[in-house]
Amino acid sequence: MSTTTELQQTINDMVDDTRGVLAIDESSPTIAKRFAAIDVESTEENRRHYRSVLLSTPDLGKYISGVILFEETLGQKNNEGMSLAELAWQQAIVPGIKVDKGKGPLPSAPGDSITYGLDGLAERLEGYKAQGARFAKWREVYAITDTNPSCLGLHANAEMLARYAAVCQAAGIVPIVEPEVLMDGNHDIDRCAEVTEHVLHSVFHALHKHHVSLEHMVLKPNMIVPGIDLRTADPEEVASETLKVLRRTVPAAVPSINFLSGGQGPEEATRNLNAINRSAGNAPWQLSISYGRALQQPALHAWLGKAENDAVTQQALLNRAKLNSLARQGKYESE
Length: 335
Ligand code: 13P
What we know:
This protein is an alpha/beta fold. The protein has one domain (about 5-330): Aldolase class I (TIM Barrel). It has 12 helices and 10 strands. It has helices at about 5-15, 30-35, 45-55, 70-75, 85-90, 120-130, 150-170, 190-210, 235-250, 265-280, 295-305, 310-325; strands at about 20-25, 65-70, 95-100, 105, 115, 135-140, 175-180, 220, 255-260, 285-290. The strands form 2 sheets. The chain has an 8-stranded parallel beta barrel, surrounded by 6 helices. It has a two-stranded antiparallel sheet with strand order 4-5. β7, α8 (about 190-210) and β8 (about 220) form a beta-alpha-beta unit. The longest helix has 21 residues, at about 190-210. It is globular. The chain starts with a helix and ends in an 8-residue tail after the last helix. The site of 1,3-dihydroxyacetonephosphate has 13 residues, from β6 and α11.
């Protein structure tokens, strides 16, 4: 199979007009934080158990078309000895892998950060592919202050995303390109819109320079929301600001935009997605999810680290996935 055929097949399997992507790719420190909140120790066995419970949720494949895994999870098996990637694909959920290696400060750009992990990426992708991964995810993070992101920050982060995406496509792996403008701070919604427009503009400019095929990638952006210390926007305002920025920056060739939740609560993230889809009219892209926290939070709180809660954990995940499936069709009613 040619690389282009392979990429297109993965897009066909991941992108449709009712489903979305589940992100369970928390790094070891992040999952330890999530588990600590429910008083559970982050051992390899607990992580394996929790994630295999999520992926064996009956009917999950009706609402979820892809799952982003952490490297450790890709090598793990369920109690019956099936790999978790295979378990996902049994329900037509395409397995993917987070390939960045976290972030640190960007030299000469105080307040901006940069993500690591390009060295050896092509070789790592071959290994992940052999384990069943068909798409990848890389996240660059942009904090908003009066002076951030800087010009250097915008440029350097966009280059990283584009180089990552080009390496993925050469390997036949669909890249999820995630430039996340953080919600932290007390900036208003206009400032979020202004920064996100700069970010997306720079990212698509870099993708073009690196000859990334827009038809064979997925964009994972933030919605346009005010800083977490303000939080006054209603879903209609979030929808109109988000669509305005996306229409200005994202080429129609991109098949799907799958939002991150970024600290929005589960109901809030569903309401906002619903409003976006209701206002989207004839938008050229699918408008879906790649939520981590907003999909998992109710499940995690139902689980509490106890095997006797496995079934209610799955019920909580399925319920959130179903509501988001309605929302990505603009058919969600909060009551
Ligand atoms: P959140 O939806 O929790 O922001 O997670 C998104 C993410 O990047 C995980 O892949």
